[in-house]
Amino acid sequence: MGRTYFVEEAVGQYLSDLSTTLKPYVTGLLIGQCSPQRDYVIRAVRTPPKEEQNEDISPSKLASVDEEWITTHASQVSRMLPGGLLVLGVFIIATPELSKESQNALRKLIFSVEKSLTKRRLWKPAEGEVSDRAALQICSATKKVVCRTYDVQDPKSSAKPADWKYQSALSASWLALDCTVNVNIHIPLLATSPNHDLERNTKNGLNRWSKQIEDSVFLINGHVKDDDTELLEGQKKLRGNTQSSTQFSDVKVLTQLSQGSSHRSTATVQVCSGSINLKGAVKCRAYVHNNKPKVKEAIQALKRDIINTLSDRCEILFEDLIINEGPHKKNFEREYHVLPQRLFVPVAGSSVMLSDYKFGDEATGEIQERFVEMLDQSVQAEDIQVAEEINT
After folding, report:
1. What backbone torsions phi and psi does residue 265 show, to the nearest 5 degrees?
2. Most buried residue among 122, 184, 199, 295 by CB atoms closer than 10 A?
3. Model confidence pLDDT, tens digit, residues 100-142
4. Sign for the pseudo-dihedral over CA of 63, 65, 69, 70
């Protein structure tokens, strides 16, 4: 049995609009959520045009598909997705002449996008997690839709057929989990590490911290819940007719202070030349489908958001420092850098919000431009909700 993708109707309209462009082909990403039973697609986003690219793609062969540009776009988009959402496929809308080539191009793209996203993650996939990704092919002339999946854990994977079903108001009443995590991470810089490689040291420190988050206890609305219970158990009466509103669960994260006495600890002494301290309170959020979701699905989505939001911000900060100060800055006196703040932006017709990060001196217009470029979505200034104080 192939997988079934339940797709927001607005995605169908978006893809249909794209198919009327006169180019030989258009590529893009599918955004949504995997679950053991079924998958959900709530957004499709076309690949942004390259500035130097002429409007008409001169060779009408799919060999000209810019793999690196598409994987870079996928990495940027994945930073803008809260917990529970991921890039779960790639689409190509192409003329009938290119239909044969399309499937090969899609297969290549799916594996390179997944490889690029996996490289940045600080968490490991759970056992038995869905590893199928969607390859959607649409003929611009006949509008015929063909959906197949590839198992990205298996490089030799062949295409399996999948169902593509449109549904209205698919994510209008998804459930949200919110939490604030106080961060206080101390990362020693070893005297032996070459060139004080701040980025690598930070990543190693975040790696250790992410394991702590994985082992934490999560209280949902003040209760520890069994992994296999339904998230909404005991809450069903509260829902009433709030079909288009989000039901929020407040989550507290309890991290272990120390290992139990059964764990032997071996201390190592290392010569350090300095340290990095990450301090502040970060706002984390995850969304989960409303088809009888299990507690473990929701907690896994929130854990990943906590880990992603901190590592993404550090990545953004280092990119910003390289742009503004150059890669060879050797002055390592005491310095303070403010990590970018998190903000959320609503998606029309959905209870899900997308995320982004802003530095204190960044104008609202820059954020609006980024949403248009990365997610093909225009955002009103009043809809941008900054979630945090500037203290991260």
Report:
1. -110, 135
2. 295
3. 889 899 999 999 999 999 988 888 888 888 999 999 999 999 9
4. negative
pTM reported for the whole predicted model: 0.89
Contacts of 2 (CB under 8 A, 6+ apart): 149, 160, 161, 162, 163
Q: Which of 15, 70, 19, 16 is nearest to 48 (CA)?
A: 70
Question: Residue 117, exposed/middle/buried by CB under 10 A (0-12, 13-18, 19+)?
Answer: middle
Other beta carbons within 10 angstroms of residue 245's beta carbon come to: 12
User: Beta strands 86-94 and 132-139: pairing type?
Assistant: parallel
> Nearest-CA neighbor of 381 among 341, 343, 339, 342?
343
Name all domains of the chain by residue range, CATH numbers in brackets.
4-170 (3.40.140.10), 174-233+246-258+269-386 (no CATH)
User: What CA–CA distance (Å, rounded) separates 177 from 298?
Assistant: 8
- Bridge partner residues of 253 (DSSP): 218
As a whole number of angstroms, the distance between CA 318 and CA 313 comes to 9
**CA gap 90, 30 in Å, rounded:** 6
